[in-house]
Design brief:
This protein is an alpha/beta fold and 256 residues long. It has two domains: 154 residues, Rossmann fold; 93 residues. 47% of the residues lie in helices and 10% in strands. The protein contains twelve helices and six strands. α10 links the parallel β4 and β5. It is elongated. The two termini are 26 Å apart.
């Protein structure tokens, strides 16, 4: 069945995850150390960042920020607190404070963010091809709008669902169903593009017709490939995907 709609994740898919969130998490981690009485403990700081999924020069694919459920996240934080002799209550409270407080650093981080590939070129081509284009992100509406403005791609989206909207968060497929309903298309006519296992589970639960993973987020090809129809380096590879752009095959056959 031909595809008529496409839904993108944001961070790690349209934006390079590390360039956006590493500075935010580093600032938040300093506050966490202070709250648990371990200010200046560089080894603990590195381990907290590693647990989250942030290394010195890239991401750790199994970090909590990429695909941990709430139950797994709490369990890992509890084990981490025991291993490091920290009160779980203080650690959990500090993480919550750091998550919300860290967003004050997000604006300056976004101004230095690196796009993953060339989203403007791809989105423009998708619109020219007649696609309904959506974005479903776990980020807030405020920072999502800020990101789209910085990348100058707001005008390409027909549907945006964020953390603070009415739909249940991924991997629940409620927003996918709402997208399809709004544009009178079937889930089987919709592609989902994301960088984490959660994005792909979201697509599979919503019965999306095509699930595409990109390596610009968690970067774990082995895990992504278990849930995706195809795994690409970046969104730029979609230009040559004959499911997304059937004319790519026609042009290829013509050239040959």
């Amino acid at each position: 069945m031909a595809l008529r709609g496409i839904i993108f994740d944001k961070d790690g898919t349209l934006l390079d995850y590390y360039s956006v969130w590493a500075p935010v998490f580093r600032n938040s981690t300093d506050m966490i150390l202070d709250r648990v009485g371990r200010s200046g403990d560089e080894q603990l700081r590195r381990e907290i960042l590693r647990m989250l999924g942030i290394g010195d020069d890239g991401v750790h694919a199994k970090g909590l920020v990429f695909d941990a459920s709430k139950k797994v996240m709490l369990a890992k934080m509890w084990m981490f607190s025991k291993r490091w002799g920290i009160s779980f209550r203080k650690l959990f409270g500090a993480f919550k404070e750091g998550y919300h407080g860290g967003r004050t650093y997000l604006e300056s981080s976004l101004t230095q963010a690196e796009p993953a590939g060339n989203p403007k070129k791809l989105l423009s081509r998708l619109k020219d091809a007649g696609y309904a284009v959506g974005m479903v992100t776990s980020d807030t509406r405020k920072s999502t709008n800020m990101c789209l403005e910085i990348l100058e791609i707001s005008q390409y989206f027909d549907f945006i669902s964020t953390f603070d909207d009415q739909y249940r968060n991924k991997p629940h497929p409620e927003s996918l169903r709402a997208f399809c309903s709004r544009f009178s298309i079937e889930p089987s006519e919709t592609a989902v593009v994301g960088d984490t296992v959660i994005d792909l589970i979201y697509g599979n639960r919503g019965k999306a017709g095509y699930n595409v993973a990109v390596m610009t987020g968690c970067g774990d090809h082995s895990r992504l490939s278990r849930h995706a129809d195809v795994v690409y380096d970046t969104i730029d590879d979609l230009h040559n995907d004959i499911r997304i752009f059937p004319d790519s095959l026609e042009k290829s056959l013509h050239i040959s």
